[in-house]
Amino acid sequence: MRYPFPLLSCAALCAFAAGCGSSGSPTPTGTLTGNWNIALLPSNSSQTAPQLGGYITNTNNSVSGTLLMQGLACTSSTVSLPITGTLTPDGNISFTGTSSGGLTLTIIGTYAFELPRVPGISYPLNGTYSITDSCVSNQSGSMMGLAAIALEPGTYTGTFQSSSGNTFGVSMPLAQSGPDADGEYSVAPGMATITGSPCFSTGTITSSNVFGGYVDVTVNLNNNGTLEIMGSHPAGVPGPYIPKESYRVTGGTCASDTGSGLLTRTTS
What is the radius of gyration, based on Cα positions, of the chain? Predict the structure, then answer.
């Protein structure tokens, strides 16, 4: 008997079958691994979306990582969300994260393995989200995400304008590192030099978070206070500046001082 088409070998059939007789599901050919910046777009236009970003990766079909959330109305702290979920070979993704305080984030969508991770051209992660917590009034809506977010290392300098009218200069080294064992990114410890302030002149970077395009750095000041600088940097590609900066001082002289400014990378 003649066949209209050549018979396929077992090896060829394996290209179309999952595992060629072995058990288990097909695995994705790409990877999620990276520092993700995720934009949340609430369905209710009167709601303000919190900032979301952090480390996501996958091992075969399992998704894991740690996302950080900031900008919640009920707390000034950053909320940590360890996530778990699944990713199929054709890019269907779902994961859930729950904070220690009970806030739950759920994301369902698609991940396009082949798309470049460049802002303005493509957002590989698209879908919907929901947040279950009284703090954000059970918010939901659409979302899009971009990975490979990196803060370009260097010395960042700039001027901050106090809400009281005073100005002072800041210069400090910033270099992104991580993720650590908890899946979080940070900047390396270093010295900050401050000029023109009537209250402090130096400080040491003691803690930090880098999640998505957001940067949060705490500096212990030489007047026993702390300076917290919060901002964002261009997402998707390394950026030479941190354009949206705010700060607040806690303790010591000038306690409760707040303001805003701009930091620019001056050296690599």
Answer: 23
